[in-house]
Amino acid sequence: MKFKQLVAAAAFGLASISIAVAANAADKKVVVGYQTDALPSSVAIANGDFAKETGYTIDFRKFNSGAEIFAAIASGDVQIGYVGSSPFAAAASRGLEVKAFYLSSISGIDEALVVRNGSGINTLADLKGKKLAAAPVSTDHYQLLALIKSLGLTEKDVQVFAVPQPEIVASYNRGDIDGGFVWDPALSELKKNGKVLVTSKDVADKGAPTFSAWVATSKFAADNPQFLKAYASVINKYYASFAADKAAWGPESDNAKALAKLLGGTADQQAAALKNLTLLTPDVQASADWLGGGEKSGAAKILKDTATFLKGQGKVSDILPSYGAFVTADALVSASN
């Protein structure tokens, strides 16, 4: 099923799921952590659609990184979060019981290494001796380290600072660092005085693919399956709109303005960032290639490969035999049918 075909299907699915959820969700509450990535579904945070369609009271909290969200999940403060595959792999390897139920995007050009004008970096060969930064344990951090390794370099050859994105932007603008591997709105800010050297897709093609996903604690997923189905249906609706009606997501659109108000940056920047996303249709996500194949699923394999790399870097101490228990297509299958 293509996103355009989902426009009508999503509306029908939302109506039926919402009725079922509302009947059983009185006084239900959940805390959801999100980040500043430009996603069509973030409009549903801004306008209250997630709460309306699920029937739950949702406390949305903004975080600077997936690592911060997983820390909040581990403490019990957050039940659902939007995270990248690198902090996900680290958290799973440490025994945190969570499940990815929706893949928001996969490696594309929405995350990239931007190098500062005047840094002396024109090609990958120029990275030796430079100072680069990425958010701690983020997919960008993972891909930056993987990129450096692929060049035959180590962190002794390239200084890598693991700091939150706001600090990356400030350090970059002061000239303290030569580049940063970031996502929007930081990506747009860094490009004002620099250029993209490599994208997340480029690094994925070198053997280090990533994804971003909505995850829920295993307990919450088991206790609230209808909520996850309704939540996934809301995401489907907005992704379908984005695919079918480009004008509704342009720089002058209410959607782009809502994203700018929620996430930062300008409507122009948000509209441009949306174009950089690499999205998967619900049926592709639910297939064995991504979330539906258990241990052999693409998402589980990326988690294990990422954990293996992180162990080699000394970022995690253990690698699990399988990461199949950390992915599920249950919410997606129900939401898209």
- Looking at CATH, which topology of the largest domain would you report? D-Maltodextrin-Binding Protein, domain 2
Mean pLDDT: 91
Strand content: 15-25%
Task: Tell me the helix content.
Answer: 40-55%
Number of helices: 16
Task: Give the topology string: H per helix, E per strand.
Answer: HEHHEHEHEEEHEHEHEHEHHHHHHH
Could you name the ranges where pLDDT drops below 50 across 5 or more consecutive residues? 1-12, 15-23
Strand order of the largest sheet: 2-1-3-10-4
Q: What's the number of structural domains?
A: 2
- Please give the CATH class of the largest domain: Alpha Beta
Q: Using DSSP, what is the number of strands?
A: 10
Rg measurement, Å: 19 Å
Summarize this structure briefly.
47% of the residues lie in helices and 17% in strands. By secondary structure, it is α/β, with parallel strands linked by helices. Helix 1 (3-24) runs antiparallel to helix 11 (225-244), helix 11 (225-244) crosses helix 16 and helix 12 (254-263) crosses helix 13 (267-275).
Task: Please characterize this protein's 3D structure.
The protein has 2 domains: 29-107 and 210-313, 3-Layer(aba) Sandwich (D-Maltodextrin-Binding Protein, domain 2); 111-205, D-Maltodextrin-Binding Protein, domain 2. It is 47% helix and 17% strand. It is built from 16 helices and 10 strands. It has helices spanning 3-24, 42-46, 49-54, 66-75, 85-93, 139-150, 165-174, 186-191, 200-205, 218-223, 225-244, 254-263, 267-275, 282-286, 298-312, 330-336; strands at 29-34, 57-62, 80-84, 98-106, 111-116, 131-134, 159-162, 179-183, 194-199, 211-217. It has a 5-stranded mixed β-sheet. Helix 6 (139-150) links the parallel strand 6 and strand 7 (159-162). Helix 1 packs antiparallel against helix 11 (225-244), helix 5 (85-93) packs across helix 15 and helix 12 (254-263) crosses helix 13. This is Taurine transport system substrate-binding protein. Residues 29-253 form the Solute-binding protein family 3/N-terminal domain. Keywords: Signal.
